[in-house]
Amino acid sequence: MRRIKINHLTEYRFAETVTLQPHSLHLRPRDGFDIRVVSSRLDITPTAEVRWKRDVYGNSVATADISQRSSELIIDSEIIIEHYSEALPKFALEDYAQRFPFRYDPKDAIDLHPYKSLIYPQDEVVIREWISDVYQHDNKMETIFLLTCINQKIANQLRYEMREEPGVQSPAETLRLGSGSCRDFATLFIEICRHLGLAMRFISGYVLGDAVPQQIGSTHAWSEVFLPGSGWRGFDPTSGLLAGSDHIAVAVHRHPESIPPVAGSFVGTGNANPQMFVDVRVSLLS
After folding, report:
1. Which of 81, 104, 229, 232 is the least crowded, having the fewest Cβ atoms under 10 Å away?
2. CA distance 24 to 5
3. Could you tell me which InterPro entries the record lists for this protein (predicted)?
4. How far is CA 46 from CA 66, 229, 262, 276, in A?
5. How far apart, in whole angstroms, are the C-alpha atoms of residue 10 and residue 5?
């Protein structure tokens, strides 16, 4: 078991006093068999009324209602977790899912349908061409080998770039540019696998240590595929590795643009000139 501290500071500065609209926060890691939240602190300036809820995906979401007008917004979160997973669990796939393509069990297929729905159907031709050296339609191959090849192809053939802009690039845009952020790579991996008929979801969270290249920072995004017998398993196309004990999931969603750590708006004039500063530190406690 490891104890890990996560400090996440977000600051917005404005050139004038503005009215701050409600802000949605995805900052608390997902409790489970491998992660337990020991303590949490959330300080918001100006003072806000904070309401917590579990959304349809089981994510912990805080809504901050700010009544006071201000020229700044500071959201300071500190969370300590206990992480009980030290090694990657083995893939224990059902016999029928050992080789791809396979069909999901009808009972699972009902719940998995939203996770198989394409977000960028217009990119299908580009995607199929890009993975043609890995997989041809109706070829039989080991499922884990196929996923590993796609994961590593993204990591090895595309260039990582940190992007400050909100949202994600479409898969076609990422392939055209030959570069993207972790959000863009996770989106590309998800859409490739959905075109193949697999159930996928987007993960937003944190990463500890050397699980990804150092320039990426501590906030991170990756993807998960539902594999019969193994459940949801994480793949990190930024590093080309499996998501493991250094990956700390905060929120999951079928759509990659739906779970940013902090989201909200303000009302002001054209002179507000908003500026944002983010500092995230993930550290192992002794």
Report:
1. 229
2. 22
3. Bac_transglu_N, Papain-like_cys_pep_sf, Transglutaminase-like
4. 7, 48, 16, 16
5. 17
Query: Which two three-digit tokens encode residue 253?
Result: 């969603």
Contact, 146 vs 198, CB < 8 A?
A: no
Both tokens of 219, joined, read 């906030």
DSSP characters for the chain? Answer: -EEEEEEEEEEEEEEEEEEEPPEEE--SPPPSSSEEEEEEEEEEES--EEEEEE-TT--EEEEEE--S-EEEEEEEEEEEEEE---SPPPP---GGGSEES----HHHHHHHHHHHS-S-GGGHHHHHHHTTTT--TT--EEHHHHHHHHHHHHHHHSEE----SSS---HHHHHHHTEE-HHHHHHHHHHHHHHTT--EEEEEEEE-TTSS-GGG-SEEEEEEEEETTTEEEEEETTTTEE--TTEEEEEEESSTTS--SEE--EE--TT---EEEEEEEEEE--
Q: What domains does the chain contain, in order, with CATH numbers?
A: 2-85+260-284 (2.60.40.2250), 95-244 (3.10.620.30)
State the burial class of residue 63 (Cβ atoms within 10 Å of its Cβ: 0-12, 13-18, 19+): middle
- Whole-angstrom distance, CA of residue 247 vs CA of residue 269: 40
Per DSSP bridges, beta strands 241-242 and 231-236 are antiparallel
Render pLDDT for 107-147 as a digit per residue (tens, 0 to 9).
999 999 999 999 999 999 999 999 999 998 778 999 999 99
